Amino acid sequence: MKNIQVIDGAENCVYDIFSATEDEFNIIFPSGTDIAFIDEVETRCSSSVFEKTFEKIWTRRVKKIDVKGIHGILFYELDMKKKYYPTRKDEEAINPEGTRLR
Known about the structure:
By secondary structure, the protein is an alpha/beta fold. The protein has helices spanning 22-28, 38-44, 47-57; strands at residues 2-8, 17-20, 35-37, 61-62, 72-76. The protein is 25% helix and 21% strand. A five-stranded mixed β-sheet has the order 3-5-1-2-4. It starts with a strand and ends in a 26-residue tail after the last strand.
């Protein structure tokens, strides 16, 4: 199982972490990526796959104290962050002018 942290644009977002199977994780984070935006995930798969995948994931919240690593970050309603993650890989995050964030 892999852990996904969900960061929502809502003011009351609590940055929950959910566990996903390898197959579920690959639906959200294709080709070795570890950053995803929900609108892009939704366009990559059929609505039935999307719904089934998240229906299962939402039942597997992991308490932060029990987490042994975060394998991916899923953004909701934060399209302004896309410019920082053009490759959708956290370690390759950049500023808009191209300088590395780390």
